[in-house]
Structures are given as C-alpha cells and as structure tokens.
Amino acid sequence: MSLLKEPDLGTPARPGPATVSVEVDGLPVSVPEGTSVMRAAARSGIEIPKLCATDSLEAFGSCRLCLVEVDGRRGTPASCTTPVADGMKVRTQTPRLEKLRQGVMELYISDHPLDCLTCSANGDCELQDMSGVVGLRQVRYGYEGENHLDITKDTSNPYFDFDPSKCIVCSRCVRACGEVQGTFALTIEGRGFESTVSPSAGELFMDSECVSCGACVQACPTATLQEKSVVDLGMPTRSVLTTCAYCGVGCSFKAELRGDELVRMVPYKDGGANEGHSCVKGRFAFGYAGHPDRVLRPMIRERITDEWREVEWETAIGHVAQRMRDIQARHGTGAIGGITSSRCTNEEVYVVQKMVRAAFGNNNVDTCARVCHSPTGYGLKQTFGTSAGTQDFRSVAEADVIVVIGANPTDGHPVFASRMKRRLREGAKLVVVDPRRIDLVRSPHVEAEHHLQLQPGTNVAVINAMAHVVVTEGLVDQSFVDDRCADFEDWREFIARPENSPEAVEPVTGVPAGELRAAARLYAGGGNAAIYYGLGVTEHSQGSTMVMGMANLAMATGNIGRDGVGVNPLRGQNNVQGSCDMGSFPHELSGYRHVSDDAVREVFETLWQRPIVPDPGLRIPNMFDAAVDGTFRGLFVQGEDIAQSDPNTKHVTAALEAMELVVVQDLFRNETAEYAHVFLPGTSFLEKDGTFTNAERRINRVRPVMAARTGLHEWQIVCEIARAMGYTMSYAHPREIMDEIASVTPTFSGVSFEKLDKLGSVQWPCDSSAPEGTPVMHVDAFVRGKGRFVPTPFVPTSERSTRRFPLILTTGRILSQYNVGAQTRRTRNVVWHPEDVLEIHPHDAEVRGIADGDEVSLSSRVGETRLRAVLADRMPVGVVYTTFHHPVTGANVVTTENSDWATNCPEYKVTAVQVGLSRAGAGPEAEWDAESAVSLVDR
Ligand code: SF4
Ligand code: SF4
Ligand code: SF4
Ligand code: FES
C-alpha cells in the first residue's frame, strides 16, 4: 500500500450539510457554509496552487499564490481565506493569475538555495512542485542581493534539523505548533525581510519549549524542517499503514521505507485516533526495533546462574513443552500458567490465553493490565455493564467541562492531550484532580478553572464529596436517573450523609471545601461534562471504588450516552484494552464473560474441543505467592517485564527464583529474563501482523513493515508450544485468529481484517446491530440495561505516613520515556530523560538538608533505592514523586504489595517513604548510571 501523498484540500472541513453551491472553472460544486473557495475547488477536482495553506491548519493567507478571480468582485482574492457564497463563479486559471503567481514564485526562488538536486527534500518539496505548477521559467532578480542563504542550521534536536536558509516564512510550522500540538513553541520574529521562524524567542530547538511532536516538520512545505533520517537515508519510496505501539491513544502512522529500510514514521491524516498528529515517541522513537540489543535467537539454560545457550526454535519449543508437562506431572495441572502482554496484538494475546486454557488445562492466565487498569474493568462493568470507556476521542470536541483525574495527558497520552487542549482553547472549562500540578493546570492558552490538589489516596473522598454537592444542592438530572438508572435511592441516602460533605472530608483530602463545591457545580451545571482518568485513579487500594464513584457522578448528572460526556480511561499501554477484551483474565473469557457461565464455556469448549475449568485461575500476585509457597512452578511471560514493573520487586524476584521454569518472550533481555530458563525472542510492532485496540475501543490494524527478524511470529511460537504439549492450535494467518475471536465474542462478531482494511478501524461493539462499530456507548440504554448506582464508602488506605516514613511517594510517567523504558531507552529519547529523578518540595528538601541535584536515598518499609533529587513545588509538602522508566533506580523496589480490594491492582500511587541524603552522595556512581542509560543508544 503506497500512501506517500495524501490529498490536501488546502483548508479544514467545515461541519454541516453542503448547502452552498458555487461554480469553479465552470464545474458546479456544493459545500458546507464557511468552506473556503480553495477547498470547494479541490472538492470539484481543481487544485489551486498554494504554499501557506494545508488542510490541517486554519488558513493564513500569506503566500498569495492561491489567488483567484471571482465574477462580480474586484481584485484577486486569496482562495484559502475567501469563503464560498451561494452562486459564486470562480476562475482559477487566467493569464492574469498565471502572471501574478509566477511573480510570487520568482520572489521566493530568488532567496532560496538552488540545490534542489542535492536537497534531502528533492521530490517531496511543495516549493519545487509549485514552481512547476505555476510554470516558473526565469528569476529576473538574480541571487546577488540581500538574502538568507547563509543562516546557520539548527541541528540540536536529535530527530530533525532546522535550516532557515530554506524557509519561506509561510508560518505553517508556527500554526501547527499552536493549533495542532498546542505547545506554541514557535513564533515568527521580525518583520518583512527580517521575518524568521524562532523557537521560544531565539533559542535552539533543544533549549526551547518544543516537545518534538513533529507537527511542524510535517507541516513544513520545504526542507527547512526535515527529519535527520531522511537526510541520512534519502527520500522514502513506499509506505505501510500501521499503528503506534507505545500508548493507548493508538495513533495511525505511515511507516515510510526506502527499499526495506524504515526511514520515517509519518502520522496518518485519516487515523481515527490521531487525525494526522503524533508525539515524539510514535513519530521518532522507533529505532529500538533495530537495536543491537535485540535478541534474535531462542536461548535456554538449566539454572539461572548458567550462561545462556542459543538453540534452534524447534529445540526451544520442545524444551518448554516438555518441562511444562513434567511440572504438571509432578505438581498438578494448576502448577503452571501464563501472563499476557498489553504490548502484543489481540491475536497474540488470544492465543496465549487459549494455550493456557486448552493446552495447560487451567485458567492461570492473567494480563499486565492487572497492574494498571483492572479496576476500570471491574468498576465500569458493575455500573455500566461493560469494561470500557464510553466515548471516542472525537467526542472531547463537544465537551463543555473536562475533568481530568489522576492522569497527565500531555506526558502520558500526548496526542489526545492536543485534541483536549484544542477544545479548552475554544472555551471548555477544565477541572484537574491530582496531587501534582501537572502541565495542563497552566499551559499556553489553557488554565484549569479548578485544581483539586488532593492528598494521594483520597480520590474516593473527593468524588463522593462532589456527588454530595450534586445531590444536596438539587443538581441531579432526575429524568435521566429515573429513565436510565437503578438503585438510585440507596445511593442518594448514602452520598447525602454529612460525612461525605466537602467540609467533612477537607481535613483528609486537603482540598478546600469551597473549591470542591465550585468544581462539583461546574461539572453538574456547565453543559456537557466529560471525565478522563488514568492510573492515578486505578492504582489505589480503592481503585475500583473510585471508578464506580466517577460512574455514579456521571449518571447522577446525566453525563452519559452522547457526544461530549462520559467516563473515559486513558489506557497506558498500546493494547491494554485489547488484552483485557481477549479473555486473558483468570476469571473471564473473551468479551468479559465469566468462566463459571456454562453457556459461555460451552461455546469455547465446542470450538476448542477441550473442557474449560469453571473456576477462576490465579491472578498475577497469587501466582507469585504460590510460587514462593512452592505450588506454582512454571510461568510463560509474554512481553512483560514483571521484575521491573510489578510492585515489591523483592517478592517478585523471590517468586521467579523459586520457579523451575520461567519462559520469557520479549525483544530484549530484560530484568525478568535474569530469572528465566528459556528466552524466546519476540517481534517488534514493525514486524507484527494483527490488531491493537486503543483506549476508545478502536481496533486498528498493525501491518508488518518488515519480516519477523526472529524467523517466527509470536503467535506461531505459542501455537507450536501448545502443539508440542499435545493440543493442536493451527492458523495460517493472524486473520484466522481474528475470525475465531469474532466467532466466540459477541462484541467482536462483526470484526474482520477485511472490514478493518476497508473502514480503517472500528470501535467495538461491532456486530449485526452496529456493523461499523460504536463510537459512543450507552446511548439509549446501558449495556447492562439500567445503569447501577453503587455506594462507594471511603476507606483510607492502610499505607499511612509514619514517623519513620513521613512522606508519601506517588509515581507517574514522562513524555519522552515509556513504561519501563525498554524501548525508549534504546532511542535518542534518552537525551530528554536519562535518569529517573525524585521531585521533592523545597520545604521537605530543606529540612533534610537536600539541595537540587543531590543523590538521595528513598526508602519504604519494603525496600530502598537511590536517585537524584529535583526540587519542585508541583506537589504539596509531604508528597514526593518519581517516574519508573529506568531499571537502575527501580522505583518499584519501594512500592508495597497493597492493592485494590476488588482486583489486586497494586497501590503504586501511595507509598509511605523516607528520603535522606544518600550516604554515597552525588558521586561518580550516580553519573555512571545516567551515562549507561544514554550509551544504550550508541551500542
Ligand atoms: S520552517 Fe517551513 S513551515 Fe515554517 S515558515 Fe519556514 S518554510 Fe514555512
Ligand atoms: S516539534 Fe512540535 S512542539 Fe516542537 S516546535 Fe514543532 S510543532 Fe512545536
Ligand atoms: S500519543 Fe501514543 S499512540 Fe500516539 S504517537 Fe504518541 S505514543 Fe504513539
Ligand atoms: S495558499 Fe492562500 S495565501 Fe498562501
């Protein structure tokens, strides 16, 4: 599929019916009101020359190349800034226009380097194209006059260069940075001839506010902003449409190749999740797929202290099967299990849970979503009837009030954050509920109306207090509640109790009652109100309670079932939604159906020809406990670094050490692999063929950009292990796995690769009643019939600060790094975040004698680590914050085993800690750590 050039209609679409009829060069065309003449012409198949216009940005009208003549009007208006009027007759090609356009182009070219043949953008330059289109044949002004040809290049960004000598000052980059990305890092400085593009007022790109999203590079019509990879490797010649494998936004990209070499990833304009935008990770941080650290051949060893031995696939697969069977013979069927990965495709996850259920003969399969969004699954199923967010991303454009709880979208879900910021700039109101002052609280042209800076661990008290205000101040949407919901009266009685009032909870939450009341009134009375939340909601001892609390609030105010409202998890990894959908929980088969349901089991048993155990299997923490007890002895781990990402590292590694067989399937020898007996090399997203499901339930195709470097796909390996254990699992292609998923999963019954290829993507439920998918859920009725109110009493976590551990640690992520960093640490992204640091309030630092940059020890009741302190007042006094992207700091060494009461999701967000100056001080060792992270890139 070659998609190098997507159509560009010049200016953005306008909503509404095509009611305005015009004639362009004699061709009739009807378009919505407000459409530009340029776009109307493009709609009728006529391309008007342009340079400063592109359909992802509002028109600016600076280049004067798109001039047209309009009957009955004087002059030659710019078609990009002129809206259509009914009956308008437009001419785009006349001798006068030709002359004017040639004159404009002459001026541009007279101040442009004449190195087209050696320019990296040769063949992909709109200036070059337009010179041809307008028929430029001469430049009368010569090249000797004053010009910009000697301006120095800015090569400071690791991924793209800025060569101002080629700039035509069209301002597309400036507008892209503002309108699309919402960072406003670029300006045009100076006037007239002196005009020049400038990052953050004259700084280098790397020193500016630029977040390297690439939007300006994408928008630039010349080689002024150009990917370094294009400069180095040359212009791509073909492209494959696929999906980013970093976060749950699920952006669509064109992987552009030159021969078999991947040159760049370009965001796809028709991508449902991203609409042509990207962040630094998906756009640029793909180099890890070719990193020399990749393991490409299977390896085995008897003991974890032995050296690894490379073997053939057949040997490795036979070894795994034989050892698994041997363990079962000695310790019982339930002594082995598997963990699926949210980094893998739906098809890869599905076959692992099938292998566990049909070949292992138990339900000991769990997913890494256990440690992130399992409370979302539980909470939304209890209240709404299904375990997924309610809206598509597009819906945020209709929100009047946006409530962000325990999420940091500009770092964690950047492309969705850009869509959200656009709506906020248009006037939607923002409420942020977070212990930390995230960037969204105040950023260019965006300021939160309310920042409820609560103490970590008090989410439920805050959401209850907001609901208390709604109920006691007469803000309930009674007709919605009466028509659509059940169990309201019990909940109303509970929530109206005085102990749930903002005043009563203020001493615990730290949120001023007046502020909380104002936020609740805004949510209930400000129009369409939408909640977006992240791991700051789920990773708590009351994670599931909080999810239900948000659902209660949305139902009570009628903010469910239409555009602009809803309760929406911002999923962490690329396929968290999908890995949960695929039945990789110990208690649920695909589509969230309980294993104890005889009718559901029968569907699978008939197809698989194997009995399925009706009792739930072990969750991940239960597997670890059972391993330490000696009853669980063999584990297959698909693409997940549990030794780094799961809480209480000591306990996890003790469990891994206790097992007879640990099989790791991954790209790199990660921390878990240190405890493995078999390493099965995995494929990167560039090699995979299948689907990912993003946070808005959107099923996107992942297409292979290159052949599997390991020789076998992950789903093939899993099928081979099952076969070697005596159970035949056979597919000719991943499309057949999706066909099987569709045949056993009602919400996927209309999904197939063919449909995805035709429609681009679909959002489940996709079935006979919604053959093209369901962007917004619960429109006329909840999936469970009536939405169910569930009382959500606040129970403080048992993790309290004490004299020994007086601070509370909470964790999060940063834009440039991803999860445990296995991928991003192997890219140039490390220049932005070479190490995890501890943010500590200046007051807490001062009383401990800690200065900015000191190395400090961070200890909890389960462990201790060291990192560098950064003084920051983003958190309240008494709260410290760190990220978990680098194994050298191992933030999870200190996190405890406390977990959500319903799902066992770890309470990563609340750990009582002490911080002190490290005895070693900020010495050479600390520096070595940071350097070693950077050096991963160069190896
Ligand atoms: S850098 Fe590119 S997009 Fe920006 S003003 Fe110059 S030519 Fe236009
Ligand atoms: S890369 Fe993104 S953030 Fe940086 S200047 Fe360009 S548009 Fe702005
Ligand atoms: S927002 Fe997420 S899915 Fe999109 S490019 Fe960035 S990391 Fe990839
Ligand atoms: S494209 Fe219309 S003025 Fe530049």
TrEMBL record:
**2Fe-2S ferredoxin-type domain mapped to chain residues:** 18-96
What keywords tag this UniProt record?
2Fe-2S, 4Fe-4S, Iron, Iron-sulfur, Metal-binding, Oxidoreductase, Repeat
Q: Which GO terms describe its molecular function?
A: 2 iron, 2 sulfur cluster binding; 4 iron, 4 sulfur cluster binding; formate dehydrogenase (NAD+) activity; metal ion binding; molybdopterin cofactor binding; NADH dehydrogenase activity
Q: Which GO biological process entries does UniProt record here? A: formate metabolic process; respiratory electron transport chain
Q: Where is the 4Fe-4S Mo/W bis-MGD-type domain?
A: 237-293
Pfam families found in the cross-reference section: Fer2_4, Fer4_7, Molybdop_Fe4S4, Molybdopterin, Molydop_binding, NADH-G_4Fe-4S_3
Q: Where is the 4Fe-4S His(Cys)3-ligated-type domain?
A: 96-135
* Ranges for domain 4Fe-4S ferredoxin-type: 158-189, 202-230
Superkingdom per UniProt: Bacteria
PANTHER family membership: FORMATE DEHYDROGENASE H (PTHR43105:SF14), RESPIRATORY NITRATE REDUCTASE (PTHR43105)
- The name on file for this protein is Formate dehydrogenase alpha subunit
Species for this entry: Amycolatopsis cihanbeyliensis
